[in-house]
Amino acid sequence: MADESPDQPGHMHFAHLDDISVDDFAVLRRVHEQNLRNLPDLLLEMLDTLGGDDAYPVDRRTHSLQAATRALRDGRDEEYVVVTLLHDIAETLGPLNHGEVIAAILKPFISEPNHWMLEHHPLFQSYFYGSRVGVDPNGRDAYRDSPYFDRTAEFCALYDEVSFEPDYESEPIETFIPMVRRVLSAEWTPPTTSTS
What we know:
By secondary structure, the protein is mostly helical. It has helices at residues 22-49, 60-73, 78-86, 98-106, 112-133, 149-160, 173-183.
């Protein structure tokens, strides 16, 4: 195994997973650890791809920066600010379920309340526009008994639905990059049985 640097994790030599060796598994671990190191940059690149679309009053990258800036200026904790920054980055990847997609990606790194909020925010957003476009604005009421209902409604009201203002002065992305790196900092562990 001559090529064991972080940039060159090595090479696995199995044809089927039931043939994996201890050495192969060590390479597998390094591959996943490298993926974890790369994840913040990958997600920030996805955020950048939301820039430049002119269908919205402001592009979706600007929308995300506005929302995160509002959360930061309101004194929200770092994880909440990062969740706010990244809440819409899966719109191009999962146009029918972007909340679920980003919630699934961030689940290992964030709290259950923030995960639930991310997953359900698209439905909660319809409260603000639904009656104007023939969508039930009260669809979110199906989740009224959730302990995270109020948190999600507040997120949408304070940060998401109001963050399309062309003249709003947002923090630059550089303000948020260290936060994203800290929140997404984790060591890889093999999959285990999960109760959730």
